[in-house]
Amino acid sequence: MTQLALLAHRDPSAPIAYRHGQAISVRRFLTEARILAGALPATGHVINACADRYRFALGFAACLISGRVSLLPPSHMASVLEQLRDFAADAVVLADTEHRDLRLPVFPFPSLGEQVSPDRHEHVEIPAIPAEQLATWVFTSGSTGCPQPHRKHWGLLRKNVVGEVRALGFTPEDPVTLVGTVPPQHMYGFESTVLLAWLSGGSFEASRPFYPADIAEALARCPTNSMLVTTPFHLEKLLDAELALPKIGSLLCATAPLSDALARRAEAELQAPLFEIYGSTETGQLATRRTSRETAWTLFPEVRLGHRNGQTWAEGGHVEIAVPLGDLVEQLDARRFHLKGRNTDLVNIAGKRTSLGWLNQQLLAIPGVDDGSFYIPEQAEQAGASAVVRLAAFVAAPGLGADHLLKELRQRIEPIFLPRPLVLLEELPRNSVGKLLRAACEGLLAEHERDKDKRHGRLP
Amino acid sequence: MTQDAATALKPDDPAELSREVAQLIVTALNLEMTPDEIALDAPLYGEGLGLDSIDILEVALVVSKRYGFSLRADNEDNVSIFASLRSLCDHIQANRTK
To answer: Which stretches are transmembrane (chain B) (predicted)?
Structure first.
């Protein structure tokens, strides 16, 4: 059985995390992970809902070294966490925030600080984990509204992130500190803030800064060779805030397409290279590019793209089972490709995915709705890159108001997919084969905008 | 200008501030409503007005530019000043520099 090291660090005194401005050594991290592993309840599955990235990493390491499987929930909402119980009945929630109304056993993150006083010179062994060990199930919100599990074995997870270490040019001599605006439970945040630090011999910042001023402060607390791990939307708001930002080493972006204009602006203002990752929870990371310099993506080692049944499939390398991609792909050679837009039915808003088909089903299931259709406005598509797409919906529901319909929809779909606007019509302008044409939809939206401006007194 | 009108126009008048902030929210997010339709105590985040974390960042940006201070939170689950229009206005009143 192949055993693969948990961490790439050689020096047990090296920092693996920064928390409230304090460096935490590899030695301390491993000591605390072992104590936590001994304290966890006797169960095979742990839902790791820790908000603090250091505690999340301790929980994940504790599960790995004790042979437990971590479940990474797509959100911290009680209803979402409870759905994971259907997946693993013995699961307990490891949480560092209060979960009062949760109908699941909660194991509050224990205080470890007082118990640990690792001796400065004590030798610590870096744990080795079998490559075949099931490390985690990562959940996506799923296009059906029910969290969808994606299994990850330690060997393949590790292979993926070791590929990332190489693609980003990280070396053990020059360790990088990762500062993430993304949660560690999301596949991107999990790989690129936690595992990337573990397997490059670097470190991560424990907080998840949200507002631009928080991001600037978190970066300032870290060594200057830091990498900001973020999303196109968050990056744009950070730049728009026009704060004085500390010196950083590089930037990483994923979850939604980034425009080359925003990439160049970020590189110019932060004086650091920006790398972009293409991937998904199902596949892990598939490709990278330096967005300011190249439009083509370069695949991770051993990953292949196959074309079957009118779709592009990712397979090989660290990809556990072949996965069809939600994007249209133009292959340039065996290692490089261009992205040519989304498959039309699929919706991706700020990294959350669903399909128009499923959204329409939810709309039509509301009592009193005769006809209805979600629509991705053209303006949103053209705004491109960083502007966040908002859906529109056209609904024929005699006697029902937009407020009522939105309230019903809110119980069925994620808030981010709620239509803005929801346009009420007597009937939808479907053509002879029942299709809604793009031109008709754009006309309705333009008319709706004019009506709104009139109502609000912005137009005569 | 009468004494009453001058008082009403003072920038720290709570009613004036909440009208102004409601207008900022409606404009920044291109919402389908008029500013006076945002109830002072209805939740902004999640239920109620239904803003999500993307909206909160948009509003935070216009608020910080208009009132001259930066908003802070530990993480996106801790944006408690966005509990309601009233709590947002209280926070602005306590921190504004312009």
So the answer is: none
- Of A76, A214, A452, nearest to B73 by CB-CB distance is A214
- Show the domains of chain B with their CATH numbers: 14-95 (1.10.1200.10)
Which ipTM was obtained for this model? 0.83
Q: For A346-455, give the CATH class.
A: alpha beta
Q: Supply the DSSP string of A342-372, one letter for each residue.
A: E-TTEEEETTEEEEHHHHHHHHHTSTT--EE
d(CA A196, CA A202): 8
Give the fold, CATH level 3, of A3-342.
Answer: Rossmann fold (3.40.50)
Any A CB within 8 A of B12 CB: no
pTM of the model: 0.85
Residues in B touching A207 (Cβ below 8 Å):
74-75
* B71 in reach of chain A (CB within 8 A): yes
Report chain B residues whose CB lies below 8 A from the CB of A211. 57, 60, 70-73
Give the residue from chain A lying closest to B69, CA to CA: A213
**A175-188 pLDDT, tens digit each:** 999 999 999 999 99
Mean pLDDT, all residues of chain A? 89
Chain B positions touching A212 (Cβ under 8 A) are: 60-61, 64, 70
- pLDDT at residue number A395: 94
Amino acid identity, position A327: D
Instruction: State mean pLDDT over A272-292.
Output: 95
